[in-house]
Design goal:
Blueprint: E1 20-24, H1 31-42, E2 45-47, H2 57-62, H3 64-87, E3 96-98, H4 106-112, H5 115-128, E4 137-142, H6 145-155, H7 165-181, E5 187-191, H8 201-211, E6 218-221
Parallel strand pairs: 1-3, 1-4, 2-3, 4-5, 5-6
Helix pairs in contact: 3-5, 6-7
Pfam families: dNK
Domain Deoxynucleoside kinase: 21-209
InterPro entries: DCK/DGK (IPR002624), Deoxyribonucleoside_kinase (IPR050566), DNK_dom (IPR031314), P-loop_NTPase (IPR027417)
Length: 227
């Protein structure tokens, strides 16, 4: 990064950032990178899913059918525990940026689990997500399958290299469908194919400036418009 790319408080112009932001998108799109950068900018705490802590994830990428239920339930318990920690804090000052939205969790379950496994998952999900706090802003990062594959390769996590194109395409489809109808919180849809969230100061500054004015509804951010 260059300059003061993460500490841009002087650009807020007195505007209040959303107190609880959830960043979402498929594997490789950059949601954790953006969540950490927003947290640094706004001096917020992060709420991260810590995929590396899931002991079943490597097995899942090798054999999705065999390890899907264990992988999914581990993530569900992990995310629900983090949401519960958030819920127990001061509800007026949550100031968190999360790299997941608990409402979207069933997306993976639907495409990875057998029918009987999904029924079990649904029962657990409904019990664990009662009274989950509503984000003040959800940011959905979109990118093409080719971009996702390239970024997964570049970051070089060994077991992720087994991710198949067909699986990523299916993920992109279910994400698009989910957010097409999502109305649980103000939504910002970002074209992340052409944006460098780790090093692109200009695009990042435009994104922050744009999201600071969002209070309701559905919005779109395409960095090419600001070129």
């Amino acid at each position: 990064m260059s300059g003061d790319s993460t500490t841009i408080g002087h650009d807020l112009k007195g505007r209040q950032p959303p107190l609880y932001i959830a960043v979402e998108g498929p594997i490789g799109v950059g949601k954790t990178t953006l969540a950490k950068r927003l947290a640094a900018t706004f001096n917020y705490q992060t709420l991260l899913e810590e995929a590396e802590a899931n002991p079943f994830l490597e097995k899942f990428y090798r054999n999705r059918k065999q390890a899907a239920l264990a992988t999914q339930l581990f993530f569900l318990f992990q995310r629900a525990e983090k949401i519960e920690q958030l819920r127990q804090t001061d509800i007026f000052e949550p100031v968190r940026v999360a790299d997941f939205l608990i409402d979207k969790d069933p997306l993976f379950a639907r495409i990875n689990l057998e029918a009987d496994e999904f029924q079990l998952y649904e029962r657990v999900y409904k019990q664990l997500t009662i009274d989950a706090p509503r984000p003040d802003l959800v940011i959905y990062l979109q990118a093409s399958t080719d971009v996702l594959l390239s970024r997964i390769e570049q970051r070089g996590i060994p077991f992720e290299q087994a991710v198949e194109r067909d699986y990523l395409e299916r993920l992109n489809e279910v994400y698009s469908e989910f957010f097409l109808y999502y109305d649980g919180a103000p939504l910002l849809i970002v074209n992340a194919s052409e944006i460098d969230l780790a090093n692109g100061d200009s695009d990042y500054r435009h994104l922050v400036d744009y999201l600071l004015d969002i209070r309701s509804g559905r919005h779109y951010f395409n960095p090419t418009f600001f070129g």
